[in-house]
């Protein structure tokens, strides 16, 4: 690994999958609200073995995108 990233670059971190309760806690919403976010396409998700999972990196991207759009809306007034 040092040979590959010997130039000081940070190696990509392994993506972590989160369950409903972890994402609900992270976003401070109910699990029902997560279901609505899945239905309307707000949050990307995966179903593995009948269990709904979310990639942490994708949740963080959604948060960043939404944060930016709120900031633009506030700044335009």
Automatic annotation (TrEMBL):
Residues 22-65 form the Helix-turn-helix domain. Pfam families: HTH_17 (PF12728). SUPFAM superfamilies: Putative DNA-binding domain. This is DNA binding domain, excisionase family protein. It comes from human gut metagenome.
